[in-house]
Amino acid sequence: MNDLHIAILGHRFMGRAHSNGWSQTTRFFDPPYRPVLQVACGRDTKDLQKFADRWGWAEIETDWHRVIERDDIDVIDVSLPTHLHAEPSIAAAKAGKHVFCEKPFCRTADEAKAMLAAAEKAGVVHYVNHNYRRCPAVHLAKKMIDNGEIGEIRHWRGAYQQSWLNNPDHPLDWKLKKATAGAGPLWDLGSHAIDLAHFLVGDFAKLICHGKQFVSERKMVEELSQTGEVEVECAANLMGEFKNGAVATIETTRYATGRRNRHTFEIYGTKGAITWDMEEMNRLKFFSEGDPEDKRGFRDIMVNEPSHDYANAWWPPGHIIGYEHTFVHAAADFMQAIKDGTGIKPDFNDGLKIITVLEAALRSMETGEYVEF
Ligand SMILES: NC(=O)c1ccc[n+]([C@@H]2O[C@H](COP(=O)([O-])OP(=O)(O)OC[C@H]3O[C@@H](n4cnc5c(N)ncnc54)[C@H](O)[C@@H]3O)[C@@H](O)[C@H]2O)c1
Hints:
Blueprint: E1 2-9, H1 13-28, E2 33-41, H2 45-55, E3 59-61, H3 64-69, E4 75-78, H4 86-94, E5 98-101, H5 109-122, E6 126-128, H6 136-146, E7 153-161, H7 178-181, H8 185-188, H9 190-200, E8 204-212, E9 217-219, E10 227-229, E11 235-242, E12 247-253, E13 262-269, E14 272-277, E15 283-288, E16 299-302, H10 323-340, H11 348-367, E17 371-372
Parallel strand pairs: 1-2, 1-4, 2-3, 4-5, 5-6, 7-12
Antiparallel strand pairs: 7-13, 8-11, 8-17, 9-10, 11-12, 13-14, 14-15, 15-16
The structure holds nicotinamide-adenine-dinucleotide (NAD).
Nicotinamide-adenine-dinucleotide binds next to α1.
């Protein structure tokens, strides 16, 4: 098995999730390469060294430009804040590296177009890490929809709710500034919800979006005795219609008390319905109009039988998997895509499509009007 040399940019939340993802691939899957955790890049050398030691990264570096210049690196893993996705991804593609990039893809459709153009010109594998697509239950939902098991889709109800900003002491970090985050929960959480909507239902025909500011000032990260302006929306509710005629609602917020990371969808079709909740990610709920009338109800499918995608690589049936497994699935599929030259979804094309929808939603939030595609 050949080695594939990885460099990761960023070493906090996603740095950890991705390091675990790359490391576990050869233990549970049969990827075509052995990922070598070569360089970890970040700004804080002490924390970075601790991270590298814990996860087995061979070297550390504080300047991402120097990482991308290296000839011995095959993959650049962009686990940086959103404003730092475009420049390193473009530079990496130009240098012939495959790019594994976190979501939201970037801040604007213009950035997205430049990223896509660079990746396509270089002929490298490009991927946006909407990892929820790689939950076995979400794969099963896709198969069931494609098999016509719920008929023609009429409703998509998506929600991505968190609660961490209920804490009044949470400071004004990069996720609360437009220049670094692109927008608020619409970008951060809505990008995932829209990716699943695209994956499971299709493209949007039109949408309207309502945003709300609950808290406009927070303590500055640099100086907690001072406050600064929260530049992004606190909650965003989107309503729209898909090109296939189904209607959609999507809620995104970081102020849903008690909802720590509730990412859900409900899909209602002419013959049945499917619902999913990330906090119970091994389960898919399915209702079929075809069931005998006296026994109709939502079935609870545990999606970890050997016949379910990804599940066979893990544990015997009933031994559930979690959030971190989606990153292993993504890393394994990414390596297979490099070997096969096939590409992997969602790619930078899909990223551009999502950012285009998000930009339209932001515009609608300002004008109060529908945007058509
Ligand atoms: N897929 C998911 O489930 C998921 C979950 C959380 C975050 N994310 C995304 O992952 C990305 C990173 O988010 P996070 O929560 O890990 O952020 P974080 O704030 O925890 O970590 C950001 C990292 O970037 C480093 N960094 C910042 N500026 C840098 C620079 N100029 N040069 C080098 N390193 C720099 C920081 O030192 C830190 O290591 C974001 O785009 C976020 O939206 C995805």
